Amino acid sequence: MHFGWRVLLAVLIIFMFTLGCDEAPESVSQSVVRALDEHDDFESWNQSDYHPEKVFDDWLEWQTESSVVCNELSKLSDLDLTVFENQIRDSKYKKILVGCQRGLIRRLDLYWNRERGSVSVPNLDFKFTTETLVMDSVPRGKILAQGFARKQVLFTFDDGPHPEYTEKMLKIFKQTGVKALFFLLGKSARMFPDEVYKIAAEGHSVGSHTESHSCVALNSRCRRSNHSPLSSSQSYNEIAAGARSVIKVLGWTHPFFRFPYGESSPELQNYLYGRGFFDFYWSIDSEDWKKRGLGDYYQSLINKIDRQQGGNILFHDIHKKTLEVMPLLLKYLYKNNYTIVIVKAKPVTAF
Ligand SMILES: [Zn+2]
Known about the structure:
alpha/beta, binds zinc ion, TIM Barrel, about 350 residues, 16 helices
């Protein structure tokens, strides 16, 4: 009898110990607070374990109660809520937003409508002339803004295409004669092929940005961000698969590639150059992912562009704010005698 109790106690202790060793899921409110905190630090945010996408994926994985998630999100201010905007609007997460997804989207829409009201959106009754920079004879290497003249601007967009925002961005560009360079994610290109055709048909340039946005560089920053770091061959595959997805949809791609987070390594760069591709970096980061009202965002953007007198600007066509700032930005650039440059190179049909 006595012995039986001891065994039971031992089993109970071992059981509790095992439970303790398992990584306990953090509370929803803790994750929300961490996501907001880390958002303020540009260096770490994109690769943080508390990037909103990772936080939402964890909630999905842990089958977190939607009522708990809804409760935490609805407590946030409108501006804080914008940090989670892409996830709130994503049908992938509707399971953990049961009962509040529509309400939260409505709040975000109202917020941006109010924001738009505070900045005057002009009529786009002007047209840029776009200069083409042909890069066929440029040695393959890392591109920032070499070859750009003063007051020339190149628009580059990462992480798309997005079924709604890319489409609307293309409309703005059509009206104003702007041509841009889109670094597509392979998986999104396959998911939204119509957007890809449209980008190409309207004369924009097309590059790739890996298949699924893995951090491929194997350096310490990438290691920190990847739950299971990639091997060399997995990194090569991730780059190749992205370019091949674009080629599969379009039949070709321009030989332009952008590393996720801009994180590259000499080994991977040589891999690209050997296949005739450029490592296309940027000279101005628009920081369109950052939590900010439209007015502040617009002001910081034109300050940056003026300071550098143009350059190769990194945007993301997956954010609503990027779309909303564009008419204002174009109007400003036009009035201040900036010109648009687009880069081209002979398309390739295999990677
Ligand atoms: Zn990206």
